[in-house]
Amino acid sequence: MSSEKRIDITQPLWDQNTFVGRFRHFAFISNPLLTFVPEKQLYEARDLYMRYKAGEEPEGTTMSQVVRAKQLYESAFHPDSGELQNVFGRMSFQMPGGCLATGAMLQWYRSATAVVFWQWVNQSFNALVNYTNRNANAPLTTTQMGVAYVSAMTAAMSTALTFKFVIQKRATNPILARFVPFVAVAAANWVNIPLMRQNEILLGLDVTDESGKVIGKSQVAPIKGISQVVTSRIVMCAPGMLLLPVIMERIEPKPWMQRIKRGHILVQTAIVGMFLTFMVPTACALFPQRCKLSIDTMKRFEKENYEEILKNTSGKPPQYVYFNKGL
Fold first, then answer.
1. 85's torsion region: left (phi>0), alpha (psi -120 to 50) or beta?
2. 8 A C-beta contact, residue 141 and residue 199
3. Quick one: pLDDT at residue 114?
4. pTM to 2 decimals?
5. Between helices 63-76 and 39-53, what is the axis angle to 10°?
6. Helices 264-284 and 220-251, axial angle in degrees (round to 10)
7. H-helix segments, 35-172
8. How far, rounded to the nearest angstrom, does the alpha carbon of residue 107 sit from its chain's CA centroid?
9. What are the pLDDT digits (tens) for 148-183?
């Protein structure tokens, strides 16, 4: 390894100040194939990651092995706690999990029972993803997690059923009913994610200077970060949930589609999967992972936290403070 240039294994391999660099990074760690890597291999990757980080990697370790270890570690272990994440909550499972839930919602949208059931399935999946990618420094109580889950379920189901009944009574174009799942999912995201991360707002989030040194806390920073995460999640599912209804409305009357009616769910799931394979890294890359907040904003909206930063920086606060926006 000594003959090869070393990398900072804790940092992304591509420039995170550009959209392309962020896209390549998230495509690297959200590859759906990473879902199927055995736990034994993941722990071996973590061991090599940590040993390389400490400069103690085994003799003969190649750069390709280091990069592969970095990919596996960052795709499967929590960035704050270092714990192995639940496989179904990892970003690498967003494509297979999301395409199954979305395909089902778009296929079975006609009856109220189906709408309620598949919204429940989807929100349960979302709750697991949000919990898996939570900020480990601001843990939720069981009660808070329960309230977040029930609130998101209520928002999704009430939105879906309200729009469904309004469309059935007033809309003349039947394709509008196919968009109900997207409206429900978007509404639920604005409830689920903020509630799952409410302690970041209530207790404040650690913020750093440009060098990464923690200089205080902010309650405005998580509001900005959570808003960006919600926007990204909605963008992530938008193409599949908005374009697929149009596609299906066009191809369902075709003779070949009429012959495989039971296979429509497979067609929809496959198309959603293709959308999500591209949209997961695209949506994650919309905003920098290392988010920044103007110190003037803190001075205006949270004077107590601003005063603490003044104290910790000897009266010379940076122009911006930085924090991890989460996923």
1. beta
2. no
3. 85
4. 0.84
5. 120
6. 150
7. 39-53, 63-76, 94-107, 112-132, 142-170
8. 24
9. 888 878 887 888 788 777 776 676 677 777 788 888
Q: What pLDDT is stored for residue 309 in this prediction?
A: 93
CA distance 153 to 124: 8
User: In the prediction, which pLDDT does 218 show?
Assistant: 94
CB neighbour list of residue 46: distance below 8 Å, 6 or more residues apart: 69, 72, 73, 77, 82
Q: Rounded to an integer, what distance in angstroms lies between the CA atom of residue 174 and that of residue 181?
A: 14
The helix-helix angle for 63-76 and 19-29 (nearest 10°) equals 80
5, containing H or E segment: none
The pLDDT value given to residue 172: 66
- Positive or negative, the CA dihedral 315, 316, 320, 323 is negative
CB of 319 within 8 A of CB of 284?
no
Nearest to 119 by CA among 241, 280, 284: 241
Closest CA to 95 of 153, 33, 37: 33
The CA-based angle 224-227-228, given to 5 degrees, is 90
Give the ranges where the chain is alpha helix by DSSP (H): 19-29, 39-53, 63-76, 94-107, 112-132, 142-170, 180-196, 198-203, 220-251, 255-258, 264-284, 295-301, 303-312
Average pLDDT over residues 193-217: 88
The pLDDT value given to residue 304: 93
Phi, psi of 312 (to 5 degrees): -75, -15
Q: Are strands 290-294 and 320-324 parallel, antiparallel or unpaired?
A: antiparallel
pLDDT value, residue 76: 94
pLDDT at position 198: 85
Can you name the residues that pair with 322 across neighbouring β-strands?
208, 292
d(C-alpha 88, C-alpha 101), whole Å: 13
Top-ranked range on mean pLDDT: pick from 65-79, 80-94, 126-140: 65-79
